[in-house]
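Hi V.,

You were right to ask for the full record rather than a summary. Here it is.
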Amino acid sequence: MRRSKLGVQTLAVDAKALSWVKDVHPRVFKIVIVSDKDFTDWDIPDDVFLIARYYGQGDVDYWEWTKGNARTLAAKMAELSGLHGGRIDAWECVNEPVVGSAASMKRLARFEKTWAEAMHEYGLRAIVGNFAVGNPADIGLMQHFAPAIEVADYFGYHGYGCPQAVGDDWTTFRYRKLLETAGVEKPVILTECGVDCGGPYKGYRKYWIDTEYIWQLISLDQALMEDPRVFGACVFCYGTFDRKWASFDLSAHVAATLGDHIKSLGDVVPEFDYGKLEEALRNWAWNHLPWGEIPYNPNAALAKAAIRHGLGMPLTGEIRTNKQGRDIVYQVFVLGIAWCFEGDYANVHIIR
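Predicted structure:
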């Protein structure tokens, strides 16, 4: 998985975006599925987290928010996932839902919670929220959306800035206040990001030359890499079927330079697990003692007590005997003896 948290979104499944993804291997990549015909051989690398938004059937964003419709939507997404062998890693629910009251937010929460539960029944991951930048305007409404976030796998937000890609906690990074108000911790995906100064025709091309926009995206990436809550972010957009979004469409220069930036940061290096190493070394050592093999059992009460008290390597296996009419189990180690009454493994005694 890439260190950079940036990827791109393509409207429909654009060929140039697919080629870019195969070359760059970004952490995230988002597609918008307009119809079943979009399911061709994508051949997206396995290390890319693939996000999908469904745009079909009269545009799901305008469906009535009922539990029945939520289950119908989940069933359709499960059907579409099956068309491509389950390659889609996570699905979005409603795109940029409009809520202006406690009643409408509660209705949305019931819809997205039901949808997420149904998605899990199909073995699919769910991204709820996906609010437009600056929404909901009344942050206090987020307390009513908490039930949906709790059930979902990710919280989605459209983290745009205007006129620059890096805004503030009320725009680009508003997800922080939204989750704080909801009182729920959940991994965040910026399912859209970049420059948006008011919808169609007001993307980055209206305000910036390529070089300036590239530096803004790099700055955004640096800020997101410092926030452990953010899993990934999808720059809108690279490839579109609707020319009203042309001012957002990344130029070949921006896409290529962004790809070079992502590749230059390399992959995430897993944190070294010293405990796992020590356990492996102890296992090997116990099974290769010069005085004979003593199988290592990390769950054995005497072994656990010996490790906890620092008694060193074993000199014997477990030995059973009877003293003063009581059955006793003991084991000799380099720096002492661990023993207990047979069956009383919760009370191990140490002799040094």
